[in-house]
Specification:
By secondary structure, the chain is of the alpha+beta class. The chain contains 13 helices and 17 strands.
């Protein structure tokens, strides 16, 4: 497939509305400048990360449909930073010829985790076994198993690993009345993720498949590329193509996968947007996931997904205290790590588990060959500076 560089190409759409104003929208800022595009964000607070990089902002909740209508009046196309939207309400705007990319029909089977699993099953894609649950009936499953809220869960919030009867009854009491997804616990060998984009013409671009490692169900680090067999790579890419073509998706999507000990893949979750596991692309790839997303939604040719180095490790900077600080001294120390790039999201308040930034370290061929051992050493170096306690 032939990819096109950004230079000397004019986007069809010049103003892009982004529903959401967090770090994902903020990281579109540099890409937008490269492409000659202006961003306007819809976000609740003037201090949200994307406001400072946007050409304008509609200050309102992301599920405020009237605010999205105002956003549409100022923009050529609207895209999404998160899934916390009122899809039914937005359909009235789509009927008035507001252009959403990805389309609402692409989002429809993905926002509810149970519906998403049913959709994947209907496509014949492999998933863990799953059931809908509302807490009223008992579950006759072997421990451990997993319970997830069907909407609005992210960064481990709304996901519970049920290890015994006591934790089951506690979770059941806390979540009573909510619509839930129950799934089997998969004793996976590794977790993988694929960032991929699809254009309005059906062109698909797939980034190097990565390994992700979680801590308290929040992404701790990403290793690019994942050390996997050619068969696993081929199977993962086939899953991505089947999914994106079925959805007639436009934009960047993140696909999370489990790899079992016998080299079988199971689809865990789909994110219809740019994704934490793709942050390494900013510094390590020819085209970042953020530029790629804007290219797709603005009807530009997709960019080159190739690595421009042997590999990379991305480590999230997670809040470890409740505080107001920019942690400047620590960021300066992190920047001294060889071949490192520190990205700070500009959030004013820290709290435990909150994503405040990330560090990407580019790898040599020799470092890539050392695989997980090297990645873990880099992560420990970053974390010893960030939170030495």
């Amino acid at each position: 497939m032939k990819f096109t560089k950004a230079a000397n190409i004019s986007a069809k759409f010049k103003r892009v509305g982004v529903v959401g104003g967090g770090q994902l929208a903020a990281m579109m800022g540099d890409a937008a400048k490269t492409l000659g595009i202006e961003l306007v964000v819809q976000t609740p607070d003037a201090t949200d990360p994307a406001v400072s990089v946007a050409a304008g902002a509609v200050l309102a909740a992301v599920d405020d449909v009237l605010a999205t209508a105002q956003l549409a009046n100022e923009c050529d196309v609207i895209t999404f930073e998160n899934e916390f939207v009122d899809l039914d309400g937005l359909r009235s705007l789509e009927e008035q010829n507001v252009l959403f990319q990805p389309s609402l029909s692409s989002l429809d089977p993905l926002l509810d985790k149970y519906v998403q699993r049913c959709y994947l099953q209907g496509l014949g894609l492999p998933t863990p076994r799953f059931w809908a649950w509302d807490c009223s009936q008992d579950l006759h499953l072997d421990f451990p198993f997993v319970v997830k809220v069907r909407r609005h869960g992210y960064d481990g919030q709304g996901t519970f690993i049920v290890k015994d009867r006591e934790s089951f009854e506690s979770i059941r009491a806390d979540l009573r009345g909510q619509s839930l997804l129950v799934e089997e616990f998969v004793p996976f060998d590794r977790e993988l993720a694929v960032i991929a984009a699809r254009s309005t013409t059906g062109e698909i671009a797939i980034y190097p498949i990565v390994e992700t490692q979680q801590q308290n169900q929040v992404c701790r680090l990403v290793i690019a590329p994942a050390q996997i067999s050619l068969d696993v790579k081929s199977d993962a890419e086939a899953i991505v193509r089947t999914l994106l073509n079925s959805l007639e998706a436009v934009g960047v999507f993140g696909i999370e996968l489990f790899l079992t000990s016998d080299n079988k893949l199971l689809v865990n979750e789909i994110a219809p947007r740019t994704h934490n596991s793709g942050h390494f692309t900013i510094d390590a790839c020819e085209t970042s996931q953020f530029e790629q997303h804007l290219r797709a939604v603005c009807q530009l040719p997709l960019g080159n997904c190739d690595l421009k180095c042997a590999g990379a490790v991305m480590v999230n900077l997670l809040g470890y205290e409740s505080a107001e600080s920019d942690y400047l001294e620590k960021r300066q120390q992190l920047a001294q790590i060889p071949r490192s790039f520190v990205h700070w999201y500009g959030k004013k308040v820290s709290r435990p588990g909150r994503k405040l930034g990330h560090v990407t370290v580019l790898l040599s061929e020799e470092a890539v060959d050392r695989g997980r051992v090297q990645a873990e050493a880099i992560a420990q170096t970053v974390e010893s500076i960030w939170n030495p306690n």
